[in-house]
Structures are given as C-alpha cells and as structure tokens.
Amino acid sequence: MTSDPLSPEGPPAAQWRAVSVRYPFAGAAAVGPVDLAIRRGTRVLLLGASGSGKSTLLLTLTGLLPHSIPAKVEGRIAIDGVPIETRPPSGWAADVAQYFQDADRTLCGMRVEDEIAFALENQAVPVARIRNAVAQAMEEVGLPEAWRQRRTATLSGGERQLVALAATLVQNAGLFVADEPTAHLAPVAATRLHRLLTEGRPDRTMLVVDHRLDGLIDAMDRLVVLGPDGTIVADGEPRAIFREKRSLLAALGIWCPAAGDLDEGLARVGLCAPVAPLSVADALAHLNPETAPPEDLARARPIVAAFVAKASAEAPAAAADAPVIAALVGADCAPFLGPVVLRGVSLSVRQGEVVGILGANGAGKSTLAACLAGLLPLKSGVREGAKGGVAFQNPESQFVGGTVRDELSGALPRRMDNDERERRVAATLDQWGLAGLALRHPFELSQGQKRRLALAMLTITDRWPLLVLDEPMAGLDAAGAAALSARIDDLRSDGRAVAVVTHDMDFALRVCPRSVVVAEGRIIADGPTPDLLADADLCARANLSEPSSAAARRWLQATKSW
Amino acid sequence: MVRTLNPLSKVAVCAVWLVAAILIFDARFQIGAILIVCIVLVALERTSPLLLLGLMVPFSLFGLGFLTTALLFREDSAFALHVAGESVFGSPAASAGVTLFLRAVACGMISAFFALTTDPGAFVRGLMAHARLPPRFGYALFAALQLVPDLAAEAQQMRLARAMQSGRVLRRLPGPVEAGSLVIPLLAFAIRRAGRTAIAMEARGLDAHGPRTIMAVPPFEWRDAGFAAVAMIVLGGLIVLCANM
C-alpha cells in the first residue's frame, strides 16, 4: 500500500520509498517494502504487532540503521526532501528528535541535567539558552530539581523514561519520533507526556509508536498499521480505521481504543456514535442522560453495563479462608544494598488470588514485589510463606541461554524426561506466540517478544506458588496482553497466587480483583481494585489515573433511574 | 573541599605523585604517601576508612604477587635486593617484596584519591575544554568511566535473577564460582551497553567536527594553584625526610 501522496506545499517531513530492511543472517526482511510519506505538521501513530518492524522502520529514518546498527537497507529515505545519505545520523539531530523504546538508547549515562543539555551542546547552542531550555524541559516533564545531579543509571525505569523524554523534547526539533514513550510510565506521567507531545509546536511533525492509545489517539491525525510481514496494511484517519478495520486489527493482535468494544455493542442496537469514537466518553456523548430519548438510554444500559463488567476483574476475589501463600508483616523494604524505601508494610497474598501493586514511578513497587517474593531480604519485619518467582521489569536480566528454546528448556527442572521437556517447550512457545522464534537469540527479539519470553520462562514451570510480574504489559501488543490475561487466569485457577506491578489501570481492573496502592513510603490503600480506582482522592494522592471504563461507570450511575 | 578543585589540576598532581611512587624504591616513602592520602581523604573528604580498605583489596592482592615473587625468586631480583638491602628491613628479599607491595598500595591509594574526589563528567569536560580532547574520545572516555557502576548494578540484577532460578538465598557478596559465572554475561552487557550509548550519542548529534558548547567547564582558580603547590611541597618534604632518615 502506498500512502499519502506528495503534498503541494513542499516535500514531506519524512519519506520512505520502497524501503525494506533485512538484518544479517535473517531469512526474511524485518520490515518492508514500505512506501510512506508524512506531511509537515501531521501527527502519525504507527501501530503493529510485536516484531512487525515498527522500531526498525523508525531507526532507518536518520540512517542509524544501517550506519550504526548492521542491516541491509534498500529503497530511499528522505527528511524534508533531502536524502538521508547526505549527512551522518548525527547530522540530523537538529531536525529530528528521537525517543527510543529503550531509555538506554536515548540516554548516555550522565547526570540528569547533563543528559538534557547534551543535544543542545552538540548543536553549539549558547550556554545561557541551554540553561533556560534545561530548566524548562525539567519543569514541563515534571522532573524534580533534586534530580539534577543524579545519574540516570540510579533512577527507576519509569524515571529514566521521563528524563529521556525531557532530553528529546529539549531539542525542539521539527520532527519528533517516539517509540513507545509511555511503556514504563505511571498514568499521570503518561497523561502529561501525551499532553506535551500534542500541545507543543503546531508545526511539529510527530511519528509515534505506542500501545497505550487512550489519551493519545484523539490527538493523532493519521494512523498507519504495519502487518506481521512488515508492510503497511492500513493507513488513514484513526477514527475510520478503528471502526472499519477493527476485525483486521484484532486478527493481527494490534491494540484498539477501549471505546471500540462499546461502540461495537451500541452499533448492534442501532445506537452507535455518529462519529467513530476514540474514547469511552466519545462513544456515549450522543447518549447524554439529560437530553437523550429515554428509550435509547434504556436500550443502551445493558450494553454499557456489559462493557463495564467486562472491563472489571472476572475472577472472584480469593476466599477469605484460602491459605496464605506469602505474607509480609511490619516489613521495611529496600532494594539490594540500598536504603529503605517502604516502611511498616503488611501484606498477604492468598492461594488463587491476583493482587495488583499500583503506584507512581519510583514509589517502591518493584522493591515491594521482590520482597514479597522473598528475593530481597527485609531490613526489618517478617516474611512468611514459600518463595516466589519474579518476571523482572528488564527481561534481559533473566536471559542466559543462546536461543529462545534454550531459555525455556533451562527454566524446567533438570530431572525431566526429554520428550516431556520438548512437549512443554513447544506448548509454551505456541502459548506465548514465540513458535517461529525458537532458534533466535533472546537479545535479537523485539521488546514485546523479550517480555513474552520472560513471562513464558516463569510460567512454564509449576515450581513457584507465587508469581510476581513486574510491569508485564510494557511492550506487549494486544495479542500478548490477551495471552497474559489468559495465563494469569489459568494460574489463579491452578491455585497459584499472582502479584502484578502495573501502570496500566485497565489491566489492573481487568485481572486484579484486589490491589494495593504504594505511595509516601508505605502502602496507603488495600482493597477491591474497582473501589480503589473509583476513589478520586486516593488516585490523586498516588498519581494514578482512572481506567478508561470510568466514564461508562459514571454514565451507568447517571442513568440508574432508567 | 578537594572535590571542588579542577579535575585537571588533581590529575596532574596525582600523576606526579604516581611517578614519584614508582621511581622511589623506598618503603618509608610509600608508607608516607599512603598515610598522607588516607588522612586527606578521611579528614577532609569524610571518606569512610572501611571504603578505603575495601578499595585497596585488589591493589593489595596485586602487591602480594610482588611480595611472593620477591621471596620465592630471590636470585632474579638482585638489583632490587641490593637497593632494598639499604633500608630498615632485615631480610633483603622480604624488604624488596614489602616495598613492591607498598608501592602497589600507594599507587592504588593515589588513584582512589582521584576517583573518589572527581566527577567523571567534570573531568571529561575539563579535558575537552582545556586539553582539546576531541568530543568523540571525551564522551567515549566518559561512557567507559560510567560503565563501572552500571556493571555493578547489572551484576546485582543478574544475581537476583539467578538466586531466584536456583532457589538460593542472595548473599551480600558473590562467591568465587558465582563471580566467575557472571564474567561472560557482564562482558556481553558491557558490549551491548557500549553500542546503545554510541547510538544514543549519535542520535543526539555528537559529531567529530564542528563547534560545540561545553557546559559547566570546571574553571582553574587560585585554589588549584594552592593545591598543586601544597601537594608538591609535601611531596618534596616526604622525599627529603626519607632520604635523611
């Protein structure tokens, strides 16, 4: 599919012509052939399943691929009509700000203020202007002044993402390219990021890859979808694509806005929104409880109620008399060889229970999770129960094998029959959508595939009665997320306990009947997830945002009398 | 106090002291150098003595190699034995070995003085601004300096993952087998990290050519001259004192 013809007002801000990329020793092209032109001032969202080549395509834009990352790139790429070969990748920094999926590819390991200033230093911007720009970028992104002298390596994953964002925004380039900018961000930080991306210069061209669509999608002018073979399968106005090609996107395992399900349900009773909705509020805008015909409201209610019920945890909360699998009593938790970050934590997880651990970036969620699993010793207090397995935030830390198959095989007990081992590995590869990648090196996988492998390694064995998943949704496409939800449900049914650290409120609401909220150096709330996320004061205190179904829940309350 | 000095004046002073520690084959000089640096770090910089002891472990092990070599292969170190024989230590072989051991520790202590009191970023910026170090080399050096703490953090993460897999309790320090098993993965991490840092720097415009701004260049001030003068006077005094004892 060829996209967006050349506009009469000048050359496109970015253009790929018959571009395809093949990595060394790879059997097939990672992406392409792609023909894509992006006009100046447009905001484009690039979607695709994990491994469809989105990140690869972005890396070709300034020539980092193949200049710095070996690959064979065919076709022609131009920025503002200038072929990219005319400059080295560094020569495009004034025109293109690149925010990579992995914060380590954006940051250079300096102190926070040096990181933010670095791109402007390279452009020989005067010192006074750099100082002002750094201060402004820190304020916009919400970085505390106290972070200025901190090294980025000492920050949490989400905090590093915020610094990386400030470091790219400060470039104030005409073309901003962002690859999964919200993957590790807490909801409030993600909302702020979406605002920053969309409220900046009106003439700025944006190309964004992200799985978290709510809050971002309504600011996008255009949607481009890459298929599994790395070619463009849909291109156009987001509302139209999400309504007309919904089944195609679902079949490819690509995220759609949560409002799509509600829109589809309302369409079945002849009440779909006049314009394809991108948010739940959009989907219900024409059904205003005060002005819409009562019979329409009555017909819509069961659909909305079903939507709200589907968005909430289907699994029942664990029985009060179910055995406790792991418990912390009066625990002071600290990272390995680090200072105490959480004090007086008391938390128990019962058999068959799925508990969400929610909180802002840097609140201490990962530390709590590792202490709950018994992986980190407590500074004081007591931990009771069996040890748990942890899927770490950075999946690469778990990989030791030479291939995906080796990783899975190594996670199984040593004394296992070979046939049974092969059977379990094959079944797990299928279950997590990794079947075609069995012989690939784990580090060659995309971020979403790495995440799936790390989760598969943890769930392939029955050895842990408690599983702790740290940001399992980061980098996952819709198919991966569905597989994860299903697997968590299986684990719960098998009587295992699961703790999920997540910034995705929709996911927490869907899979965790109970959650704890971490803030102010302790657990500030513990209870049913729907109740916690409906508490506006609590969410504000812990920097959480409401789930996308909240608008539907409010609508149901407003139409109770119908 | 020492932290606020220009890194280049510190590196120059440390280089002179290192050369002196290498050339002056006298255990008294080495002991004096170790004590002076220790006192400055503990008294002026509030450095933990335990941290200093920990940092000296690898240098001590290195120095022990000299000591055992000197004791076991006396015939091969006739010149060293001859020189060491003039010192206060009784056995010539032991004397030469002890001096070599102390020299390794003194060099380690001087290096620790620089490393503990210097911000790597300020050092690199100083080199680029005052010593015309090309930015590409400067930031490569900077990345290499930053890699050390990052390797430690990554090693901790790997140890956590392995402790989970093996079901063992995580110890504060890894045993020899565990440490050995971390070498290859950490080397792979270092290579990956270096590649990612190079991409990050290139994407944000680091270029070999053209003008650039260097922020927060550490200035040369009178206190740098004062520090260098005091350091040279102390060094001279120590040499004279050792020669006259």
Structural features, described:
The complex is a heterodimer of chains A (562) and B (245). By secondary structure, chain A is of the alpha/beta class. Chain A has three domains: 14-250, 3-Layer(aba) Sandwich (Rossmann fold); 259-311, no CATH class; 324-551, P-loop containing nucleotide triphosphate hydrolases (Rossmann fold, 3-Layer(aba) Sandwich). Chain A has 21 helices and 19 strands. Chain A starts with 13 loop residues before the first strand and ends with a helix. Mean pLDDT of chain A is 85; it is low at 1-6. Chain B has two domains: 2-119 and 220-244, no CATH class; 135-203. Chain B has helices at residues 7-23, 27-45, 49-72, 78-84, 92-117, 120-130, 135-166, 176-203, 222-244. Chains A and B meet through helix 3, helix 4 and helix 5 of A and helix 7 and helix 8 of B.
Radius of gyration of chain B: 22 Å
CATH class of the largest domain in chain A: Alpha Beta
The number of helical segments of chain B is: 9
Total domain count of chain B: 2
pLDDT below 50 for ≥5 consecutive residues: which ranges of chain A? 1-6
Measure the end-to-end span of chain A: 48 Å
Note the main sheet of chain A: 6 strands, mixed
Summarize the structure.
The complex is a heterodimer of chains A (562) and B (245). Chain A has 21 helices and 19 strands. By secondary structure, chain A is α/β, with parallel strands linked by helices.
Highlighted features:
heterodimer; A: 562 residues; alpha/beta; Rossmann fold; 3 domains; six-stranded mixed β-sheet; 36% helix; globular; disordered N terminus; B: 245 residues; mainly alpha; 9 helices; 76% helix; 0% strand; flat
SSE order and pairing:
The complex is a heterodimer of chains A (562) and B (245).
Chain A: E1 14-22, E2 31-38, E3 43-48, H1 54-60, H2 64-67, E4 72-79, E5 82-83, E6 96-99, H3 103-106, H4 112-122, H5 127-141, H6 157-169, E7 175-179, H7 187-199, E8 205-209, E9 222-226, E10 232-236, H8 238-244, H9 246-251, H10 259-268, H11 280-284, H12 294-311, E11 324-333, E12 342-350, E13 354-359, H13 365-372, E14 380-385, E15 388-391, H14 404-411, H15 418-431, H16 447-459, E16 466-470, H17 478-493, E17 497-501, H18 505-511, E18 514-519, E19 522-528, H19 529-534, H20 536-541, H21 550-558
Chain B: H1 7-23, H2 27-45, H3 49-72, H4 78-84, H5 92-117, H6 120-130, H7 135-166, H8 176-203, H9 222-244
